Amino acid sequence: MGGEFVMLSLVPILIGVLAAIACALPGNFLVLRRQALIGDAISHVVLPGIVVGFLLSGTVSSWAMMAGAAGAAVVAVLLIELIRRLGRIEPGAAMGVAFTALFAFGVLLLEQSDTSSVHLDVQHALYGNLESLIWVEAKGWSSLFDPVALAGLPPELPRIAIVALLMLVFTVLFWRPLKISTFDEGFARVLGMRTNLIGFGLVIMAAIAAVAAFDAVGSIIVIAMFICPPAAARLMTNRLEAQVLWSVAFAVFSAVMGYVLAGYGPLWLGADDAVSAAGMIATVSGLVLALAALYGPHRRSSGSPAEG
Amino acid sequence: MIRALQTAMGRSPIGDPLDTLSDKPLAVRGLTVSYGDKPAVFSLDMTVEDGSMTAIIGPNGAGKSTTLKAVLGIVPRLSGVVSVFGQPLAKSRPRIAYVPQRASVDWDFPTRVIDVVLMGLSRELGLLRPVRESHRQRASDCLERVGMRDFAERQIGQLSGGQQQRVFLARALAQDADLYLLDEPFAGVDAATERAIIDVLKGLRSEGRTVVAVHHDLSTVRDYFDHVMMINVHKVAEGPVAEAFSEENLQRAYGGRLAANLMNQLQLGGH
Amino acid sequence: MLIDAVTLQLGYNATLVAIGAALLGIAAGASGTFLFLRKRALVSDAISHATLPGVGLAFLVMTAFGGDGRHLVGLLIGASLTAAFGLWIMHGLTRHTRLAEDAAIGAVLSVFFGFGVVLLTVIQTVSVGRPAGLEDFLLGATAGMLYQDAVLIAVAGALAVLVVWALCRPMTLVAFDAGFAAAAGVNVRRVDLAMMGLVLAVTIIGLKVVGLVLIVALLIIPPVTARFWTNRSDRVVVIAGLFGGLSGFVGAAISATAPSLPTGPIIVLTAFVLFAVSMLFAPGRGVLAAWMRHRRQQRRIHLRQGLLAIAQDLPIYERYTLQLLVRAGLARADGVPTELGRRRAEKACRDESRWAVARRMHSHESAVSRYDGLLPIEDVLTRDEIREIDRQIADVGGECA
């Protein structure tokens, strides 16, 4: 199966794995900061972002759309902060107001503009199209060492690889400020850390991960990978370092397993069409979380005696 | 008292405030903080003497913690200037250690006691410098000083309230600062912890460091502290405990009837 | 055209949809308020996304039994079943693990939605050649809506409004203060359940009109909007219902005027415009009003501190204080007070000493508790009370000559 596998499945699996890692890394801190749903908000506003990017540039160039999506993510984050701070509205509700309004704006824009000719629709934004990212030039494992074949790799792969690397660098480089300001913001401020900046940086990193992953796999995986692997990992350990490693392991497992189940599962059951890989990856990550919630060694809080 | 301030600060009607503020560990002038429409702290002046141990006391909602947070820039101030050792806050941060209220953090955070104490060494460790055995040793020594060395590897969520407070104090000790600011360090802790904490704080004073703590238990003020700052949104009194911790001032800070009750508890009536 | 739409002249179906959307908006605004006041607004997001697998399963089941997979009532029943299941899972995650509610919400919404997408692709392969049209549930579609579907939505919307009206009191009580409600004999658990049931019902009804991604907006935006207009929770419910109904009606009407104006997004954007206007300009809690109050208070505090500094011959530390004093004609640019400044300073200082004495007197406790550093003493104490205070000051010797 080597040749076929390399051509049809290797690239989607790699992209799925890298996207899952890129989202799970910042997701750990978002979950600990009770900001898990910022990933939800960001992935919703990616749609208006790509529409605006398309309308402004007039092309379906990925870069224009990614810039639009990144811009929209920043707008969403600022809007949420604005509503939260100025309107004194609790964060959950502020998010709900901001992302639904921006999403509605995106759908309206999509209906108003003539985008039907290009491949740009809501479904694509939500589910992505992982299966279509095939490596046409590949003839087998040997193609990995063939410069001509490598040049034909789908551009999504190097893009998500770079972003995954960026997330890794960000996490390692700012490990201490992230950890301290997440645990004890007041103390971090007294140390002279710009906690607002750290929080904003984290959200921007999450936005970059969301946009890049969205480009390849659609927003539904993005939300699932921000939350499910880190949440499951939290139930496995009581140390942040270990938690992050667990979350990466869960993310990789969900991506590989989800892709395989979506692609080959129906065949095993006798059906002849594959099902949505993005949806299946999200489903598997949910099953992982369910198992962790039922059997994870640290699933319950240690019952800290509130008043000693 | 106003006269004393005037001589301490000169009489020039305007000028760079930091020039005129002394190089005391902590000097605050005209501090006002407002959360809503009513000020939480109004036009507060405060001077902390070098090597002193000062209690900030006052009734609930008097703005004690707010004062501390505004001094540290954790909450924004509406007006006022703050100087720490004669310098603005940004320059004097390395000389300050802060112990927040225990309840202000999520104790379910996935980390161990020793890791929390190591946070006190952040300034030295920077972003990427690896934690060496020497750092670990110092963190461990700080835990020893609060009687928690054996708990170094524990998950923080497993600690009792008093033990959590000791960990916070150990983290502050690791900062090796000249000015220690503590927010209700004795709130909800057991008697043994209270003794352990006050011993550590007195030890700091004897090393020439300055301690300021928000405190709510009036019965221990005389035993624990040498200076007191009494506030109720406004400053009510400030000075050595022997002078400022008087029945009259308590009455002004806590209001008439309430103060009478307190007075009975404290058996201060005869003073 | 728009006038026609708003005055219900665009045909029977459009009228029904507009009325249905208005009723839906009222029900959503009011029931969303209970979630908002309990700080659980985004629970609705999990509920709405968890409907998708139900829609898919219902379609598959109905087709398997040889029926029409697109029967609306069947699809909605499927939707409510999985939504309820999602809610139950979410509850279990927060109750029995250490995860916080936001993580539970996000996990349920993404996983259920992901599974729903898997089912949709299954359906695509099952119903070859005939599009199932289930994608309509993502964004809503009222354009080609059947007459009986429109009636169903209008009737269900009316029922939801009735239920809100009937349960308003206990739910307000619980939303405002669950502990107090329990003490008053309200069964908090049951009310909570009713609240969730109502939100679930509104979500299901809204699926066809605004779609599952945007129904959340109708549950969240009107209550947040209403919050800017009042501090009383019972009024928030009513105002949120009004804003929700208005958004639904106007949005549906506008969207009926042109095919390129999809109903759901237009309704949501109408609600958002109402929100933005309220947030900026509402008196009291609006941003503009709050900012003006803040600036005014800051000015007053700086002026007061400046006057006190003048009175006690202390330096003025902050440039802004001096600017204000100069602007008010109380001091010269070099900080030397004018005659007026001296007089006002003297008065400020005298009042400060009066307050200090008043604070010491038991009889003025309630008056003193209102003092914020700016309140003129004449506003709370009578003239003879002030005279009495002045006498005491004279006895001890005040700080201001």
N-to-C span of chain A: 63 Å
Number of separate strands of chain A: 0
Mean pLDDT of chain A: 87
- What is the assigned CATH homologous superfamily of chain A? ABC transporter involved in vitamin B12 uptake, BtuC
Task: Please provide a written account of the structure.
- The complex is a heterotrimer of chains A (308), B (271) and C (401).
- With 308 residues, chain A is mainly alpha-helical.
- Chain A has 13 helices and no strands.
- Chain A has helices at residues 2-32, 37-57, 62-86, 91-112, 122-127, 147-151, 156-173, 175-183, 185-190, 195-217, 219-234, 240-268, 277-295.
- Chain B has a single domain (2-266), classed as P-loop containing nucleotide triphosphate hydrolases (Rossmann fold).
- In chain B, the strands form 2 sheets. A 6-stranded mixed beta sheet of chain B has the order 5-6-7-3-8-9, sandwiched between helices.
- In chain B, helix 5 (113-119) runs parallel beside helix 8, helix 7 crosses helix 8 and helix 8 packs parallel to helix 9.
- Chain B starts with a helix and ends in a 5-residue tail after the last helix.
- Residues 1-16 of chain B have low confidence and may be disordered.
- Chain C contains 18 helices and no strands.
- The longest helix of chain C has 30 residues, at 147-176.
- Chain C is an all-alpha fold and 401 residues long.
- Chains in contact: A-B, A-C, B-C.
- The interface between A and C is large, with 67 and 63 residues.
Topology at a glance:
The complex is a heterotrimer of chains A (308), B (271) and C (401).
Chain A: H1 2-32, H2 37-57, H3 62-86, H4 91-112, H5 122-127, H6 147-151, H7 156-173, H8 175-183, H9 185-190, H10 195-217, H11 219-234, H12 240-268, H13 277-295
Helix pairs in contact in A: 1-7, 1-10, 1-11, 1-12, 2-3, 2-4, 2-10, 2-11, 3-4, 3-10, 7-10, 10-11, 11-12, 11-13, 12-13
Chain B: H1 2-9, H2 17-20, E1 26-34, E2 39-48, E3 53-57, H3 64-71, E4 79-83, H4 89-92, E5 96-99, H5 113-119, H6 122-125, H7 133-145, H8 161-174, E6 179-183, H9 191-206, E7 210-214, H10 221-224, E8 227-232, E9 234-240, H11 241-244, H12 247-254, H13 256-266
Parallel strand pairs in B: 3-7, 3-8, 5-6, 6-7
Antiparallel strand pairs in B: 1-2, 1-4, 8-9
Helix pairs in contact in B: 5-8, 7-8, 8-9, 12-13
Chain C: H1 2-6, H2 12-37, H3 43-49, H4 51-64, H5 72-96, H6 101-126, H7 136-139, H8 147-176, H9 178-183, H10 188-210, H11 215-227, H12 233-256, H13 263-281, H14 287-311, H15 319-327, H16 339-360, H17 365-369, H18 383-396
Helix pairs in contact in C: 2-8, 2-10, 2-11, 2-12, 3-5, 3-6, 4-5, 4-6, 5-6, 5-10, 8-10, 11-12, 11-13, 12-13, 14-15, 14-16, 16-18
